[in-house]
Write a structure and sequence with these properties.
This protein has one domain. The chain contains 11 helices and no strands. Helix 1 packs antiparallel against helix 5, helix 2 runs antiparallel to helix 3 and helix 7 runs antiparallel to helix 8.
Length: 259
């Protein structure tokens, strides 16, 4: 219970820090930067309190830190000095006279609460026993391979898109090369695979007491595919004929290798 209390206090402080920064800069879109970093804060807070260090817990600490810092750095470079994202601009218009209060409750507080639930597979790793049998190691190895695949998909696709957008001759064009030729959202697909890997790594000891933690992976997958990830971008380009032509030949989420 003490562990939960400490984590709650840390996340409460983290929430208010980013909310204050966003209000000062008049940019609620900065919460996107806080998203990835929140998991790094969670994993280190839990790790510092853990009494038993296992192979899985060390791997989880390294993987979440690597994933979270990469995502934070990428979004920091992209969003910090830019105008507020159109999604949050529209929210401001709908919130009328109390944008800060609405943002606090509906954006910042909600996202921190959501991160706490989604991170259940990450947190649970630090409470499962060390596994030594061959099937424990097989599950752990499989989780590691999934993380490497997902991280490669996410980071490479982001790098490819960034380079594509940096070239003046590509202005107005649709990115359909590299990993973007196999799925319209390779970065989100990679993120999804990473979250599957977290659960696999957590479950390597087959401790059924923590099987409920898979809810975090399910929620993240649902958000990426049906709520805050894929749908928003698809809606943004629904009237773009070039994008629609790209959509006709490229799967929306799960990649397909073309002949």
């Amino acid at each position: 219970m003490t562990h939960v209390l400490v984590l709650s206090v840390v996340m409460f402080v983290y929430l208010h820090l980013w909310f204050l920064i966003s209000v000062i800069r008049k940019n609620f879109g900065l919460v996107d930067i806080a998203w990835g970093l929140s998991y790094v804060v969670i994993v280190w807070t839990v790790f510092i309190q853990t009494q038993t260090i296992t192979t899985a817990s060390i791997l989880m600490l390294v993987f979440v830190t690597l994933w979270g810092l990469r995502l934070t750095y990428y979004l920091l470079l992209r969003n910090w000095s830019k105008p507020e994202d159109y999604r949050y601009v529209n929210m401001r218009k709908n919130w009328g006279k109390h944008p800060n209060l609405n943002a606090y409750i509906k954006v910042f507080y909600f996202q921190i609460l959501l991160a706490s639930v989604i991170s259940l597979p990450i947190q649970s790793v630090f409470y499962v026993a060390e596994g030594n049998a061959w099937y424990h190691m097989f599950a752990l190895g499989f989780g590691v391979l999934l993380f490497i695949l997902g991280f490669a998909f996410e980071s490479i696709s982001d790098a490819q898109l960034k380079r594509f957008k940096s070239l003046p001759e590509n202005k107005g064009k649709i990115m359909d090369k590299g990993l973007w030729a196999y799925t319209r959202h390779p970065n989100y697909f990679g993120d999804f695979i990473i979250w599957i890997s977290y659960f696999v790594i957590m479950f390597y000891s087959f401790d059924v007491r923590y099987a409920f933690a898979i809810i975090g992976t399910f929620i993240m997958g649902y958000l990426l595919r049906y709520v805050s990830g894929v749908p928003l971008l698809e809606k943004r380009y629904k009237d773009d004929p070039k994008y629609q032509a790209y959509a006709e030949k490229t799967p929306i989420f799960f990649p397909i290798i073309k002949k």
